[in-house]
């Protein structure tokens, strides 16, 4: 990793044991993608539950040369993440799958032409490093600066016809790769 791992604790005190588990999990991510530039992990605790223990939320933000991957899992099953180590395990399992899928696409091991959709750029927000695509069926699809190939993010304008690969994210549909 070019940028050192960043671990943030919110709503809970720092724990050396939790930090060690996160460092162990991050060190294994290189098996799935060899060009990870940075990784930021946020460990958060919700203190709203009076009848159950704390609920833990793990957010992982991984940056590669061409894409930013985000894992942000909040489960509504009240007992799912009362154990911080289960929350960490599950979040890193998702991160590993995302990296593995992304590496497959980059190495051409997936026929991306079958996954591509056509759309039109409807908004580009350079100050926020993202924009939105209108899909052929009228849905709005988010994309990040790092997911744009070809001429790059700065060349995109509203009205441009593009092709993209869509994936489902916790926050809704997002274009993982945008071909400009």
TrEMBL record:
Q: What InterPro entries does the record point to?
A: CSD, CSP_DNA-bd, NA-bd_OB-fold, RHF-like, RHF/RaiA
- Give the matching Pfam families: CSD, Ribosomal_S30AE
Domain (CSD): give its ranges. 116-180
The protein's superkingdom reads: Bacteria
Q: Which Gene3D superfamilies does the annotation name?
A: Nucleic acid-binding proteins (2.40.50.140), Ribosome hibernation promotion factor-like (3.30.160.100)
Recorded protein name is: HPF/RaiA family ribosome-associated protein
